[in-house]
Design goal:
By secondary structure, the protein is α/β, with parallel strands linked by helices. The chain is built from 9 helices and 9 strands. The strands form 2 sheets. Strands 5-6-7-3-8-9 form a 6-stranded mixed sheet, sandwiched between helices. It has a 3-stranded antiparallel sheet with strand order 2-1-4, covered by helices on one side. The structure holds adenosine-5'-triphosphate and magnesium ion.
Length: 271
């Protein structure tokens, strides 16, 4: 399957370019290589149990950082810290844009609002003309194959459809920073590929700085330029997806081969 195209970039009246022009919305593109996320010596504990210790990394515009690691190692916590939902105990976090989209691990749709309204909320700050707002909502829903579900409520959608709605909402504004928490988990393989293709296409078109937290092999292998493997609060390995499959690092090897034997003991994960 070829890459999914961002619709509406042609020359028609309803194109994304014309919508931007009519509503005085600045061009979304940022310069590749611009430093967008800086994390320095970050630490976070929950009720005295350390989750993250002395964590440092950066993400530039146009780059996708993959964060992998066992369940409970603190991946979602990093994303929550980056978007200010929770506060760190130590260290520094600098996020160099307020235009941030977040794909939550558990969809986080508002249940009393329709799919259309959930997306409209994300666009509210832009004060778009009604017809332009409608166009963006339908375009983004088309990307995830849900244009027919405009007036459905989240409870009427399957888990995967809710996830795809959450994805469409997060990218509604073509944000400069996108944080994906398990964007493909729970989706069928074809829909996973569609979402991955769109993430790749977004990265090419708008140069956002992205972080993708995922357990899904195809997702980090296809979308991430660089990967960090987290365990026991620290980065145990980092490198490219290519290097991940060939490295001798015992953590990465254990993770890649999904074995119980290795430095990441099940007992560390409370099992
Ligand atoms: N608000 C909270 N209060 C107390 N403990 C928390 C809180 N949020 C997270 N934790 C704990 O912090 C640890 C890391 O949680 P986090 O959700 O970041 O894991 P994760 O790496 O995203 O796991 P998964 O792959 O299962 O999604 C877990 O042990 C969790 O129980
Ligand atoms: Mg998580």
């Amino acid at each position: 399957m070829g890459p999914v195209r961002v619709r509406g970039e042609g020359g028609s009246r309803g194109s994304a370019k014309n919508i931007r022009r009519r509503n005085n919305i600045p061009e979304r593109k940022v310069n590749p290589g611009e430093l967008m996320i800086e994390v320095k010596n970050l630490s976070k504990s929950f009720t005295d149990r350390p989750v993250l210790e002395d964590l440092s990394f950066t993400v530039n515009a146009g780059e996708t950082l993959g964060i992998i690691g066992p369940s409970g190692c603190g991946k979602s916590t990093i994303l929550k810290l980056l978007c200010g939902l929770i506060q760190p105990d130590g260290g520094e976090i600098a996020v160099h844009s307020k235009e941030l989209g977040l794909v939550f691990q558990w969809s986080a749709l508002l249940n009393s609002f329709t799919v259309r309204e959930n997306l409209a909320l994300a666009l509210r700050g832009r004060r778009l003309k009604r017809s332009d707002e409608e166009k963006i909502i339908i375009d983004k829903l088309k990307l995830v194959g849900l244009a027919d579900y405009l007036y459905s409520f989240p409870a009427q959608l399957s888990g995967g459809q809710q996830k795809r709605t959450s994805f469409a909402r997060a990218v509604a504004n073509d944000p400069k920073i996108i944080l994906y928490d398990e964007p493909t988990t729970g989706l069928d393989p074809v829909m996973s590929t569609v979402i991955e293709d769109y993430m790749i296409d977004m990265a090419k078109q708008f140069n956002p700085a992205s972080i993708v937290v995922t357990h899904q092999f195809s997702t980090w292998r296809r979308t991430a330029d660089r990967i960090i493997l987290l365990h026991a609060g620290r980065i145990q390995w980092q490198g490219t997806a290519e290097e991940a499959t060939t490295t001798d690092n015992p953590y990465m090897k254990q993770f890649a081969h999904a074995t119980r034997e290795g430095p990441m003991l099940a007992s560390d994960m409370g099992l």
